[in-house]
Structure formats: structure tokens, C-alpha cells
Amino acid sequence: MNIKVETKYYLTAMVRIHSTTVVLVSISFICSIFITFRYKQFRSLNKKNPETVRMNHENNVISILTDRPETLCNHRSSLKKHQKVLSYTLYGDGTRESTGQGKKYRDYVRNVIKQASDSEFYKDWKVRIYHDDMIDSEILIEHAQNEQVDFCRVENLRFYEFDKMITVHGKYWRNIAMGDDNVDILCFRDLDSGLMKREEYAVQHWIDQRKTVHSMRDSSQHLVTLMAGMWCFRNELNRQLGKYLLQEIIYRSFHYIRKTDDQPLLHTVVWTKLFKDSIQHDSYTCQRYPGSIPFPKQREDNTSFVGCPAIPCLGKLNPCPEECRPKENMDWIYC
Hints:
The protein is of the alpha/beta class and about 325 residues long. Helices cover about 40% and strands about 10% of the residues. The chain contains seven helices and seven strands. A seven-stranded mixed β-sheet has the order 3-2-1-4-6-5-7, with helices on one face. Strand 1, helix 3 and strand 2 (about 125-130) form a beta-alpha-beta unit.
């Protein structure tokens, strides 16, 4: 009797072991098929032309971005279509009133808003100021009822997979408007630089030519293709392109974090792709940058230049090279 019982238990155990072995073998077989399939996919992808792979990636990104009609400023800004925008950045501890710098930044904001509203050219443009939660509250209170101004709190913004735009360095925030479907024409400026008639004529000339990018270089110290606070982008000509370029700026910004890194980044992301679709107004370095043309309006004196960090500008300019002067106005010594 004991032998029969032991035999029964032995047979039962053998059946269970066999069943378990079959299951494990089946799982191993399925896993091997899956791994082989994924490996073949990987091999197939890497056999493709790299340019084709890159273009497919860009098209996928663009299609996703196009399907996300989120505001890239605030609710009020999302209600108006076909905007022309002057885009600024205000960020950092220094913008707080408690630091003693609050008044300086309030003056900067007040000046650019007043200059835009007083200008016949810019009076119908929106002034966008991208900021973080460190902004001096007095700035927001003072301009809360001004419909020409939109304050864009970056902590509230989302773009594609970037759920926290606040993690992007502040100097790049003004570029966020490149992805906004409500913006037709967009110019990037510095808060501490005033708006000039000379600049207005240049921007109007660029608009008339229907080019995508506008670059201005108005000093012998302007030695890059795109000055970060002196260029424009025309969203309405290719909105998908604007979204893609913004995505590239955001991705790369985490590797371009030094104070002057924004200009090399803009060169890499924007200029290398679009320099043939641009207007360049250049008064000193026209020979260095082929395709440059003179400013359409002569400067008012020998100290002022577009982008100078104070109005009135300080310091005396050198005469412009003859090659950079308008052929019909060679007497514009300071062009």
C-alpha cells in the first residue's frame, strides 16, 4: 500500500515538473521570437539612409506639435489671431523688488511698452514678456489693464513633451512664441535696448520682402549671424517650421547654458537652415556675411545703433566701411 502511494505522488510530481518545463520553454521561445523581430527592426532602421531617418523623425515631431493647439503665453493672448509680437525675457532673482533691482526692471518694462505704444510702426504690435514667478508683482499690477502687453508666466506653459518649460534657461524663453499659432510676425528684443526708427525701417523692409528670417548687425561688435535680441521670424510663412525650430532650441538649450551661448545655438538651429531665406541689414560686417545689405535709414548720430543697451547710446561709432554703405548714399559716413 505504501509503495502505491509513493508511486502516485512520484507520478504527480513528474507531471507538474513536466508542465512547468513546457511553460518555461514556451515563454523562452516567445521571447526569442520577439527579440529576433526587434533586432531585425533595428538592423533595418540602421540600413536606411540617415537623411531619410532624420526627415521621418522631423515629420513625426511636426505632426505631433501641430495637433497641440495650446497657448504659449496666457489666456488673453490665445483669443486673438494674426498677432505681431515683440518678444522679451525677464527672469532671475534680480527681478524681485526685495533685491533692490526691482525698480531697474520696472523701468525697462515701462520703457519698452511706452516706446511700442508711441511708435506708429509698433503701436499695433503685442509686447510679450516671458517671466517666472520671481517677477516683481508691481510690474504686473502696473500693466495689468494694458491690452498691448501680455505677461507669459513660464511655469504655466506646456509645449509638446516639455511639461515644465521653467526648466529651460531663461534667456531662451522669448523664443517660445515661435510655436504659437496666433503669432504671424515675431521679433526678439532685449529689455534694456530701446526701439529706434532705424530699426523700424529695417523690419518693414524685411516684411515687404516676405523672407522668413531677419537679422540686424549695427555695430562693429556685432560679430555673429544672429544677435539674440536683434532678429525676427515670420511664423505665418511656415508655422510647422517654427514649431520644429522651437523644439530644437529647447532640446539643445540644456547644452548651451553660458551667458552668450544663445547666439551660437541660434546659428546652429536657425541660421544654418534659413540663411538663404533671410534679409540681413549690416552696417559694419557686410563683407564677413555674404548677402548683407545696408540699413534703409541712416542713423541719427554717430553714437546710436540698434541693440545698444542704453538710450541714449554711449560711446562714439567708427565710420562705416564704404562697402556697407548704400550705393546711392555713399555720403552716409556712419550709414
